[in-house]
Fold each of these.
Amino acid sequence: MISRFVLPGLLVMVALAGCRGAESDAPPIHINPNMDWQEKFDPQERNDFFADGRAMRPPVPGTVARGFLRDDTAFHFGRDASGEYSTANPVSITDELMARGQERYEIFCAVCHGSAGDGNGIIMTGNYGYVPAPTYHSEALRAVPDGYLFEVIGNGVRSMPGYAQQIPVADRWAITAYIRALQRSQYAEGTGMASTSLPSAGASSAK
Ligand code: HEC
């Protein structure tokens, strides 16, 4: 009968012997290492193989991430190859573009600049202490090139924040086209505008 307990008893003793209760610096036995340990450089590690001593290699100068080649400077930067502002909108002006421009303008710009572009948006008329947004119908802003308006939308100007994060490039051109329409709407001459149906400029009146 005693022998029935010998084998289990021995196993328990062996198992308990494994819990030595002492710390060990030796790594645990790794039965199947596969490729768990390899020669490699950690991030930011030094590597004297390269002249600059960096293991992490910078991209080759001129590298362009796939889909990020922005060689159409007029479209992407509102400037021509020599760095001057584009005088014309690089996208073709269609009904869809104007509708898109109006929609985006009403979302992002009208709160300050007003639906008619006269600078009387709700944030301005509500007297919240914000720097006044200018009217687009001044001589100066009627004279700026399209590329400038495009740039203001993306980068902001003085105390106006930039909207590059919210408004993609194509929409910035749509808004630019819409601002031009707003400007023309305030300076209709003779019957020039009579037959053209402009997008509604909202309730606020022009100065
Ligand atoms: C939060 C309010 C606010 C919003 C929203 C806003 N703007 Fe402005 N904008 C301003 C203010 C303020 C100025 C004047 C900045 C200054 O002179 O310091 C300005 C100036 C401008 C100017 C004149 C730049 C110049 O050279 O005088 C243009 C053009 C313009 N904004 C276009 C836009 C467009 C387009 C949008 C929508 C994408 C927009 N703004 C959204 C507040 C706003």
Amino acid sequence: MSSSTTHTGDDSDKSVHTFTYSGDSSDYLSDSDNDLPPETEERLWRGIDRSTDERCAHGRPRRKVCWGGRNTGRRFLGCRLEEDGNQCSYVKWIDAEWPERVQVSFKKLWHQSNQFMRARRHCSNELRDALAAKVNMEQRLKKSE
Ligand SMILES: [Zn+2]
């Protein structure tokens, strides 16, 4: 008689997910040099830049930090206007390009982040549908009482 719960050590559930970055255009984070870099704000690098003589068509540029793709974390100066479509395409990088290995790693991380976000949306939708079905069923049970 086998008394122990056999744990076969089958880790099929936790298999290492190998990751390949295809770099296809479906990546929501475009890294094209023609697009404005996705941006974020940082406490130590924000506001209108007064330390350089840089200007865009709208005056002194705004300090920004790239938040997406291979340039993640690089500081740059960009148009002072808000992201409302009126921004001009002015971009002046402050930090030098990251080493290629870092750029590739950032792209992988953003790709994975994108996958997780998609999975989370999918789970939210599933949960919403399941709750709706539950409510529906409870209402039908009440009626049939
Ligand atoms: Zn501008």
